[in-house]
Design brief:
CATH superfamily of the largest domain: NAD(P)-binding Rossmann-like Domain
CATH architecture of the largest domain: 3-Layer(aba) Sandwich
Strand content: 5-15%
Number of helices: 12
Shape: elongated
Helix content: 55-70%
CATH topology of the largest domain: Rossmann fold
Structural class: alpha/beta
Largest sheet: 8 strands, mixed
Amino acid sequence: MENLKLSCIGSGNMGFALMRGINKADIVFADTDTEKAQKTAAALGASVINSNAEAAEKSDFIFLAVKPQVLQAVLEEIAPVIKKRLAAANSPVLVSMAAGWSIEKIQTVVSQNVPVARIMPNTPALISKGMIALAISPEVSSEKTTALKTMLQGAGEVDLVDEKFFNAITGLSGSGPAFAYLFIEALADGGVLAGLPRDKALRYAAQTVWGSASMVLETGKHPGELKDMVASPGGTTISGIAALEAGGFRSSIIEAVKAAWKRAGELC
């Protein structure tokens, strides 16, 4: 599908990241914060339109890049336009990234047969290193599904999944970067405690985490196996691992994902 027309309702970090990764498309932004929308659009060579309803009139895909608590009002605003387009057999695909809003819930507000895709990206999409879960309703054609996947790949890896996994993915991948940043910060603090300058400690910590993640993805080895490759008997690494276990490191991470997963379910 060439010469696609895209609307992005909302011009925050995630909307910006996804639109930046999409090529060969005519993109417009709509946002109640006009100044922010103009800055975002200018950075991408896109344009700004005056209302959400106008954003829904001609686009092939309408990205809903707003917070969950705002989505209801946005859907109600664009619903009349979407229903007219459905009647004319020219419906766009609604692409929502709002946590907690199921495809069924979106269709209940707009129309039962509107094509809907849900995505759950994460912030590394800002540097085209994101992990993006994608679920689609039966109304989304295979052609449009392929087009959407191709577009999103500009922001990272795209995985087509069953929607029932979305709350778990939100807790793990959507919230996960914040947990990873805390670990990197703590790792760097440990380096500072051991005598490293702050800038070097942070550089070593970040590169260590990046390289370790790459090892998991590129070797296909289980993290436990890779961990054992580093932890020699009576050595420094196993001593550090023992300290982490004493502090409940793994259980704390599991509980963090569990708490985020639980909260995602509460937003429904």
